[in-house]
Structure prediction request, 417 residues.
Amino acid sequence: MYQQIVDQITARVMAGDWLPGQALPSIRELAADSGVSVITVKRAYEELERAGLIATRQGKGSVVAEQPEQARALLVDALTQSLAAAVAHATRLGLTRPALHARLEQVLDASETPATHHEGPKS
Amino acid sequence: MMAAFAVSGLCKRYPHFALQEVTLSLTEGEVMGLVGVNGAGKTTLLRLLTGIAAADAGSVEVLGHRLPQAQVTAKREIGFASEDMRLYRSQSLDWHIAMMRRIYPGWDDAYAASLVHRFDLRPQQTLGGYSHGQRVKALLLLCLARRPRLLLLDEPTTGLDPVARAEVLEALADVLRDERRSVLFSSHNSHDVEQLADRIAFLHGGRLIAHADKERFLDDWRRLLCLGSVPPALSSWPELAQVRHAGSQVEVKVRRWSEDLPARLSAAGLSVQRVDPMSLEDIFVTSVRAGGVA
Prediction:
């Protein structure tokens, strides 16, 4: 359940709704606003702090961390996990390396994301 | 910090049911969800906390007041709402509000007005014409607008349609803004508990079988999907609550998850394919089927 709150805050920081240094709502405020328990929001803030996306100052509440690259680092982590999961599926299907590469190319072609234009495949 | 309530060694015997040795407390400012099947003892525990029923053994303290001795003082700060409470069907909500205002000095008219609006109730209509959901909301409004420091709610969302349920849950979430107010609510809808509660207390057959911080409680449980055949020794692993197999696929529900479990299962002949968190609902049903051990 706290993962939903983590995702929401990460999305807002990455979208620039909440800027580095900006104060986050207090735990109680966010809990009441989103209709979830205080402990859930507390847990989400702890995770976000561990990930370096927010910083908590004693008695002053939490702010969005000054290093925006943390948000990027989280995305990179998510990508690594998805790729590992894809490799696990491919292994179970008995796909060869070239076959998996071909499948990835197909997905890239189908999705037409900017990634297909800017960056070549790096490992 | 003060305890919203603390009970110790609490026992209450009825002809066909007994609440046995319940020891439980709630820190001020927290929300506790009481889960359990019908007849688990949820209502009995709530009634003991309100002072409506007296314990056979054990102690009850509410907001620092010992029951039954300091009952009168304690009751001023407790708001109790339960399904079997009756309102006057021939009178309007406004009439009930006026009565509550006379009884309770802490009555908050502005809060009552905002709840009338939020719950979409017609204050001049006699309550005989209200639907079940409207009566439940009216009762909750009369309880909330007193601003009691401890809210005891027996099944506040049972029988409500999804819209009314969302309205009630939002009103309860709003209570959390004030860190001196605490809530204990029972529900057999574990989604409500999963959403709102900071702590979970799990009653089964009159006994408290688990109570914990909700996130930690959810963290302890996992559902694993494995491939292989079930080794016979598996039934004696205490951390496993349930093992079921269909063909070569084996589903294992774990009550005490640890990171080394997949490796140990693998050594026993089961290869773990997936590890997923479980909903409170699933945990609840699994525990009850496993004979009430959480």
